Amino acid sequence: MNTPRKAFGGTIAVLLLNALLLVTAVPSARADDRDKCRRQIEKIEERLNHEVARHGEHSPQAESRRRQLREERERCWNHYHSWWNGSDHQWHTERDWEQR
Q1: Dihedral, CA atoms, 10, 11, 14, 16, nearest 10 degrees?
Q2: Containing structural domain, residue 25
Q3: Closest CA to 73 of 46, 42, 47, 49
Q4: Considering its fold, how many domains does the chain have in total?
Q5: pLDDT tens string for the chain (100 positions)?
């Protein structure tokens, strides 16, 4: 026979298990998202380098890629309070990409 006390204990056990699963799953999802952010920045940096080599440092094409790069870094910053610099292959925790 299922008493209220046993049902309550089972409910608590299920809630604790769900909380444990949530706590362990969130960091890996966040790391995957941050890695996606890094890959996107690297892709835009590569396109920027291509446009500079093909059309010149101050060409409209290069400026367009620079704008995309700033937007992507801003998006990453807003989500993770850090941004990826492909030149030195590291995350930065200061919002200083305009100076680089």
Answers
A1: -110
A2: 4-99
A3: 42
A4: 1
A5: 556 666 666 777 777 766 666 665 555 556 678 999 999 999 999 999 999 999 999 999 999 999 999 999 999 999 999 999 998 999 999 999 887 6
